[in-house]
Amino acid sequence: MLYGRSGLSETSRSVFGSTGWLFADLMLAIAMAFLVANTVGVHTPHRPVTKKLVCSQPALDRFHPVKVPLVINPTGLTSRSRTADASVRQQVERVHGLKKRRAGFVIIYTGNAETSSYALVVDGFVKKVLMTLPNQKLGFRSAAYLDEQIIGAEPNSSQLEVYLFEPQQCTTITEPPT
Q1: What is the domain partition of the chain in residue ranges?
Q2: What is the percentage of the chain residues whose pLDDT exceeds 70?
Q3: Potential cystine with 111: which of 69, 125, 157, 178 (Cβ 3.0-4.6 Å)?
Q4: Alpha helices by DSSP H, the chain
């Protein structure tokens, strides 16, 4: 008597068929037990969020110079008179648009009623006074200077054109943990 194509009886086939599913279920249970045993109790540390402060390079405001008219004592400046120096210093410190800003470029115009070389000498002394101003209030030390003359003007008149750096823009960048 033939018992189907495989040659096994109905009872034999159901026993071996159940055994196969039982073996597959057992393998699945062992795999799950292995995964649980390796992950339970393991704490993966969280890396802290990284914050960076990124600041742009300040740009020179070329279109809005601060103009500072000065009344100077050219003889006092060239003879290093403290009163003449203090007068220039006070006139510059009173200009509101310069406070806590950094100068990038300064043009010094001085009257030229006498010889041109004298006006340039006076410009040099005005520059020395500007460079002695404290950095916390006004930043003139690292500025570039250009000496110019106002032809036909009185030697006691001077004007500054101060090109300032724009305030530095800083941004905090938050980098997610990896």
Answers
A1: 1-44, 66-164
A2: 79
A3: 157
A4: 10-39, 74-78, 82-93, 116-131
